[in-house]
Design brief:
It is a single chain. This protein is an all-beta fold. The chain has one domain (3-173). The chain has no helices and 12 strands. It has strands at residues 12-13, 25-26, 31-35, 45-57, 64-73, 83-92, 99-104, 121-122, 129-132, 135-142, 154-163, 166-173.
Amino acid sequence: MTTRAVAWTSVSVPGDVCPGRTKPVKLSHGKATVPAPRSLRSLKQVTVTEVTHVVGDLYGPGRYVAAVNVRCSGSKGTTPASELQDSWVLYTDADGTVEPIVTLTPRQPADDEKAVGHAPYFDTAPGGITIAPDAVTVHELWYTPKDRTCCPSEHVTTVWRAHGTSFSSYTLIKG
């Protein structure tokens, strides 16, 4: 099976798409509701939702990867106020088997004063992620203290460099 032929709404995603979760989550029709990790004591369940996916050529000609955007939300649904974490999960189809290789999350520091209780997230509009040889470039939306729940105002670009199956990142703040 290749990354282009996978039904991404029915894949298993790594547990780390939700804070504190370790067990993989199997999506069905793009969604799964699972018990909340113990670290999220105020929640009984979390919802994992596949938002979109993109296929690109990360490792050279014909060596495609797929990036699947997955959101983990609390009990209030899939509104920005209930969002716990946004992730891009990269999958490879080496040896004919589709396997996750890394989970990318927004780079806004957890102790950043600007975070103010809202999880930063990825821009999933067309062009919000670019997969090119040896690099994945993502656009992120970060909150500032003045932002309403609906509308983060800080736009950031992060470039993830691929070193085989490990990745390093650097962030460029746009404004």
